Amino acid sequence: MIAVKLIPHLLSWFGIVLILLRGFPKRRSVVIATSIAGFVIGVVGAFLLLRVLTGSVGFVIITSVLGMCFLFLWGVSVAAIYSRAGRGVTTGWGVRLVSTPLCAGSVTAISGIVAGAVCSCTLPAMDSTLMNLAMLGSISGALAYVLAYAALAVEKRISHSFTVSPSGMISAVVALQLFSSSSIIRLDLFSPLSMKVMKFAHDFVHQFMESMLIPDHVFVWSYLWRYIGLLFGKEIGFWGGMFIWFTPVLLVMCAVQYERLPSVAHIRQGAERRKLLAAAIRQRRLRLVVPFIALLIFTAAAYQSCYPNVEYWDPKPIVVTATSSGEIIIPMKSDIDLEDGKLHKFLFKQGGKEARFFVLLGPAAKLTVDLDACAICKPDGYGQADGTVICYYCKTLIPLETVGKPGGCNPVPITFTEKKDGVHIDALTLINEWTNTVQSTTKGKEGGK
Amino acid sequence: MSDNIIETSGLTRSYGDICALKPLDLHVPEGEWLSVMGHSGSGKSTLMNLVGGLDRPSAGSLRVGGADLLALSEDGLARFRRESVGIIFQQHHMVPYLTAVENVMMAQYFHSVPDEAEARTALERVGLGHRLKNRPGELSGGEQQRVCIARAIINSPKLLLGDEPTGNLDHKSTVMVMELLKELRAEERFTIIMVTHNQEVAAWGDRTIYLDDGVLVREERMSS
Amino acid sequence: MKRLLRLSGNLLTSRFTSPVVIGFFLLLYIGVAFFTEEALITQMELVRQSAVLVALLSLLPLNIASRIVAEMLRYIERRRLFSGTAADNESELFDETIVLAVSPAITGLQERLDGLGYRTYQTERSLSAWRGVSIFPARVLFLSGVFCLFLGILVSLVTRTSYRGPVIEGVALPTPSGNGGVVEQIRLEKSTGSILSKQLSMEVAPARPGDARVSCGIYPPTRYQGSFVYPRFLGVALLVQFSAPDLQKGFEKHAILNIYPAGKEAAVEIPDSPYRLMISMAESGDGSDPYMTGRMNFTCKLLKGNEMLFAGNVPGGGEFVRDGFRLAFPDFRRMVITDFIRDYGVLFVWSAAILFGASFLFWLPVRLFFPLRQMLFIRHGTDMIRACSRTEGKEKMHGGVFNETLDMFDAGRVERKTNLG
Questions:
Q1: Which of A32, A49, A286, A426 is the most exposed place for a label (fewest CB within 10 A)?
Q2: Which CATH number applies to B32-53+84-221: 3.30.230.10, 3.10.25.10, 3.90.1150.10, 3.40.50.300?
């Protein structure tokens, strides 16, 4: 089972080495050595990191590194398009830097470490004993060795005219890293990105209107305001996320496509000039292939993120009633066991109003009662998987350790008392909390500034 | 290194039981104007197709411009044709709804980089600077053939092949086309191989070979 | 010192400065977003409070301004070259420059280029040919727009002050300086505009003798004593009188209530008592807007703790009495919650929008239909020619003409072509 889970990650790593070998054609030995070393360091390092640091800190660190790789790609792509589009922009030093062994070594090592770390996140629970570490190091080293040399063999068979630009190489490497990580929901970047974009769009529009002294919705036609309201929905988060996700690789493609053709003014025969230009155009087209593949991989990663191959634990809410004193009492053990570490959803109805909430035993063996809604999104509810709960609306993952704490997209916590006969919740408080939360989030999402 | 642009040895082309070209040894020096004469079915066009990379021989060796045509892949052969050979046919094979300059630019597409200015210059060189925007139907036979010459030389070929290029022209136009070819050859220094029935046309060349039933039967060098 | 100056100069004029600074602020935003949900506001606050960040941000308009100057100088230098009055150091100003060892034959060439639609200008030692219109004005407009945008953001971040106050009919305008004129009338009317559904006007009497009357609308915001008047929400200034059987003293207060549109509730706390009033503007029966007509009824709920004692309607100027409770609204006036904003950055950002628009309108047709294509041939002695080419569009076509011209120089065919033509 674990081997099956590892296949996409290993294939991604194989692809990364292949691209790096073609990207640094004069540094093959450096690429092979550093990629193997990087991969082993990544596997062992992440294995230790996830076991030494408690909670989700290890995942946050690895996700941050992935985020930095993506930002690096953004930087590279902007530099690439800027150097192509601007007259008089010289990037010769950049080209020289890319061809140094130091650059080849560091890019490869970092790629290997990231790929190894991502692979390590799929490994089953094991103690970080010296024996286990040694075994892990040996197995990952052997795997890396085999795959790296396989990549070398494949690379040697690919035609020499099939070249890749430095920006194309980086885009493909990052695409493969993100493809690999997007299958692990705790390392996924696309969904948090969409969430952040949604928040940014909201803040930006608000700030822009205030700064430009644009009148509030009271004075503006409501049909027009509905269009502005679109900027506050999750769709803007999704499409904004898509924009940020795909723009770097599209910029790289544009940079390749708009590379200046060689000067042919010194050639005095038209056919020779055209031949030279045609060869340059052909080279340029071939250099587009890798970024195009990267674009497809980015698409696959985004798809994987939007439709993860993960079954969320999302039980149907059980209808509960309140006692005459206005208390909802949920027994610890009945048909369901509140302390089994799973999310248990309940539905309470009173006087035409209803509230959905859940009870969960957290990793610190502490019960928490929360609304099945957060303070900022529409109340689409939560599902549970792999040490987290996920907000269905914005796809934000909330580590189980932080469920019960208020703020952001965390479920809104509800005051309760834990007694021998079960969990006691004040029905009026619950209804009021739900009503207030849902009123404010629904209004917020439907166009209030 | 040899100065011959074409070197054949035992060059043969058979179609089933029919042998269109029997083992032929031929050497054509660079820059020569070679006329090929013979009756219908004598193997003239077969020879021209082989030399131009339009067909592959059944046996023998064939080197054109240093390239062993038998060793070339289909892609290599296509590249050889578009970069090294220009062909003028008796039928002009022009696109009727394109102008003269666009017809010439069609040939530039083989390099994926059309260049209108260059096509215009090529037409000016064949004396059609004033007929750039005319369609083939608006040109005389001689003018159409001159467009074909411009089209044939646009990629600066090493070898220009003519298959009865003046077969449909009157005497005056024939002379004009021949003079033009002579002038262009002097400037561009390409080699011409011209298949013809017409002794007068053949006389414009440096040398004439006669084929009969696929065999080289006679060779005649023209006095300059 | 010299080195430092040179470094500063390079930093100011480099094409990389702006992207790097923008990239830095982007990274800062991402960093801030890790720690707070209010990343944008936090980042703006960070910039306001940090001299280093302000200095870094000010690099943007400075860099753009120096780019405008540098590009103008290049443009002037190129023009001088084309008019034959500049020195021969042109290689950086063109896309392609080539020196050919050929005998220049400029006379025939000029005719040929004229025939191809190029305008030509010949001096003793050079021939320049050009076609189309330069997009340089669009470039300058664009860069000026970028300059104004960043300057506006900088000025706005650093100097913006905002003061919020209620503008009430019959009361002096609550400006930050406190010496605003009296608001004579607030009018809200339906609008037929394509964006705004309502028109608001606040008529302000002269604050001092000699001042003009001012009418403050919605957009563009009116400037009053150096501040933009930015109406935010509508409401009512209500004189609330309340007495209850268990209250020794009656309660009277001028309440500022943000209760527009009708139905929106606002609370009035009765101090030192368990009472609380929830007041909203009642919908009018005929569908008209009470704020516009001035015929206002107020829906009131009286709460004691969480318990609602009673609810009812009180007309503006009227009262409500029940079970020893009395609620009266003897005075009510239209009110607009208004921000008084002193921010000159806004003017720059508006200018930027206009400049971007103008730049785009100039650039699009020129780039599509008449991009500039230039060639320059300079004679060097009797057997050398330096040829330069530059395009702002339609590169292929122009490249063909340029190369063909060079071919003709090389083959000495310029005169022959003239014969053929």
A1: A286
A2: 3.40.50.300
